[in-house]
Amino acid sequence: MNLTNETMEKIQFIFPEKELITSERVYQIAEESYPNGSPWSVTNFQTDLDTSLAGYGFAVKDEKAIGFIGYRHFLGEAEITNFGVNQLFKQQGIGSRLMAACLSHLDEQGMKQLFLEVRASNQPARTVYQKFGLKEVAIRKNYYRDPNEDAVVMQYIKPEEE
């Protein structure tokens, strides 16, 4: 599915989103986003949602969530915990726009730095993250399962304001 500019304009990026958030709904979006299905169970998402530090943002088209990003934020430090775009909408710039909306939201909340892990083989995601100023800072050996794979830890440090 190739989205036109008009269709892209109809996609909303909502932070923080409270109406769409249920563990079942986030799990379903994750199932539609990852090639091997959601890396988290409904219970994992519920545990995350029960944490006061967790938040979620969504890309919404025609009142249906087509992408999501989960994060935790505490004392100026944030971590992206989950990030996915429905397979039908990949390679359309939605992930980039969702990441930009998330960084803007976290910046408004006082974020000074952000971390995330990404599969070593996920070069498209790594490229998007680098576009936003994230740098590769470490490798976590055998971090991912199904299939087993290393994680690249990436960090964003907010530029000092002059």
Secondary structure layout plus pairing:
Blueprint: H1 5-9, E1 12-14, H2 23-33, H3 42-49, E2 54-61, E3 64-74, E4 77-85, H4 94-108, E5 113-119, H5 123-131, E6 135-144, E7 149-157
Parallel strand pairs: 4-5
Antiparallel strand pairs: 1-2, 2-3, 3-4, 5-7, 6-7
Helix pairs in contact: 2-3
Please report the total strand number as a whole number.
Answer: 7
Beta content comes to 35-45%
Tell me about the largest β-sheet: 7 strands, mixed
Classify the secondary structure makeup into a structural class.
alpha+beta
> Could you name the ranges where pLDDT drops below 50 across 5 or more consecutive residues?
1-7
Strand order within the widest sheet?
A: 1-2-3-4-5-7-6
Q: What is the end-to-end distance? A: 43 Å
| Number of helical stretches of at least 4 residues | 5
Question: Compute the gyration radius: what is it?
Answer: 15 Å
Listing every helix as H and every strand as E from the N terminus to the C terminus, the arrangement reads HEHHEEEHEHEE
Task: Characterize the structure shown.
The structure is a single chain. By secondary structure, the chain is of the alpha+beta class. Helices cover 30% and strands 35% of the residues. The chain has a 7-stranded mixed beta sheet. Strand 3 (64-74) and strand 4 (77-85) form a beta hairpin. The longest helix has 15 residues, at 94-108. The chain starts with a helix and ends in a 5-residue tail after the last strand.
In short:
By secondary structure, the protein is an alpha+beta fold. The protein contains 5 helices and 7 strands, in the order H-E-H-H-E-E-E-H-E-H-E-E.
